[in-house]
Automatic annotation (TrEMBL):
Membrane topology designation: Multi-pass membrane protein
Binding of ATP, residues: Y10, E70, K88, D89
Chain sites annotated for binding substrate: E63
Entry's transmembrane regions: 23-43, 49-69, 90-111
Lineage: Bacteria, Pseudomonadati, Bacteroidota, Sphingobacteriia, Sphingobacteriales
Family assignment from sequence similarity: Belongs to the bacterial diacylglycerol kinase family.
Signal peptide annotation: none
Name of the protein in its database record: Diacylglycerol kinase family protein
InterPro entries to which the protein is assigned, alphabetical: DAGK, DAGK_sf, UDPK
Tagged with keyword Hydrolase: no
Protein's organism: Mucilaginibacter myungsuensis
Length: 121
C-alpha cells in the first residue's frame, strides 16, 4: 500500500515538473479549463463531456510523454546530434496531432452551440 502511495507521489512530481518547466503544458491546462467552463456554460451532453475529457487527457498525456522524451534526449545527447533532433521533432509532432484532434473535436461540440447563441441574441 505504502509503495502504491509513493508511486502516486512520483507521478504527481512528474506532472509538477512538466507544469513548472513546459509552457506548452500550461497552455494545455488553460485550454482544458476554458473547455470545462464552456462545457458547463453551454450545457453540453454527457457524451460531449466524455469527448471533452478524453481530449484533455489525450493532449496532456502526450505532452507529458513529450517532456519525458525531451529530458531523456537532453540526458543522453546533450550535444547536437541529428538523430536526437529527429526524436524531439517526432515527439513534438505527436503532441501536435493530439492538439489538432482536440481542436477539431472542440469545434464540432462548441461551434454550433455558440452560433445558435449568437443567432438567438
Ligand atoms: N541535442 C540535439 N541535437 C539536435 N537537435 C536538437 C537537439 N536538441 C534540440 N534539438 C532541436 O531543437 C528543437 C527544439 O528543442 P528543445 O529542446 O528546445 O525543445 P522545446 O520543445 O523547445 O523544449 P522546451 O520545452 O525545453 O523549450 C528540437 O525539436 C530539435 O529539432
Amino acid at each position: 500500500m505504502k509503495k502504491l502511495i509513493r508511486g502516486f507521489g512520483y507521478a504527481f512530481k512528474g506532472i509538477g515538473y512538466a507544469m513548472a518547466t513546459q509552457l506548452n503544458f500550461r497552455v494545455h491546462l488553460v485550454a482544458s479549463l476554458t473547455a470545462a467552463v464552456l462545457g458547463y456554460a453551454l450545457h453540453v451532453s454527457t457524451n460531449e463531456w466524455i469527448w471533452i475529457i478524453f481530449c484533455m487527457a489525450l493532449v496532456m498525456s502526450a505532452e507529458l510523454m513529450n517532456t519525458a522524451i525531451e529530458v531523456l534526449v537532453d540526458l543522453v545527447s546533450p550535444e547536437y546530434n541529428k538523430k536526437a533532433g529527429h526524436v524531439k521533432d517526432v515527439a513534438a509532432g505527436a503532441v501536435l496531432v493530439t492538439a489538432i484532434f482536440a481542436l477539431i473535436t472542440g469545434s464540432i461540440i462548441f461551434l454550433p452551440k455558440i452560433i445558435a447563441l449568437i443567432h438567438a441574441a
